Amino acid sequence: MNCAIAWKNLESAVEELESGNGDWDIMAATAQAAIIMVFDYEPAEIMEQAQASGKPFKALARWLVYEGMKLADLDQARIKAFVEYWNSEMAPAHGNLVAPIKAA
Q1: What is the DSSP code (8-state) at residue 87?
Q2: Contact 34/6 with Cβ under 8 angstroms?
Q3: Residues 6 or more apart from 14 whose CB is under 8 A from it?
Q4: Tens of pLDDT along 35-53?
Q5: In degrees rounded to 5, what are phi and psi of residue 31?
Q6: Pick from 63, 93, 68: which is nearest to 80 by CA?
Q7: CA-based torsion, 62, 30, 15, 20: positive or negative
Q8: Could you report the per-residue pLDDT of 45-78, keeping only the tens digit for each?
Q9: How many C-beta atoms surround the C-beta of residue 32 within 10 A?
């Protein structure tokens, strides 16, 4: 698998979730697994897919961080690396991406 395929899986999972048709728990678990798969790739690769999606870029990046922080099975260092990459490479054009504070 490559990042583009992982990204397409994420888009498909989110579309299914947003449709509301089907078992909510299964659709949510599928979307969560897709987020974990996307974060297996380097931040630059993820950014490339996010930019190509045509969705609001910074909002999409924030959403990935927010949802990723909720997933116990996702290495939180991957999220930190994503935010750091954004802040070093994307911030000049789009502004800083501040990671939400995880509730205790």
Answers
A1: I
A2: yes
A3: 31, 34
A4: 999 999 999 999 999 999 9
A5: -65, -40
A6: 68
A7: negative
A8: 999 999 999 999 899 999 999 999 999 999 999 9
A9: 19
Helix (H) or strand (E) holding 48: helix 43-52
Which DSSP state fits 88?
A: I
For the chain, the farthest-separated pair of C-alpha atoms sits apart, in whole angstroms, at: 42
Tokens of 103: 């509730």
**Sequence-separated (6 or more) residues with CB below 8 Å from residue 57:** 50, 51, 94
Which tokens belong to 19?
A: 């449709």
Run of H or E residues at 58: helix 57-69
- What are the backbone dihedrals phi and psi of residue 13, each rounded to the nearest 5 degrees, phi first? -65, -40
Joined tokens for residue 42: 């380097």
Contact 10, 38 (CB under 8 A): yes
Instruction: Return the beta strands (E) in 1-85 as ranges.
Output: none
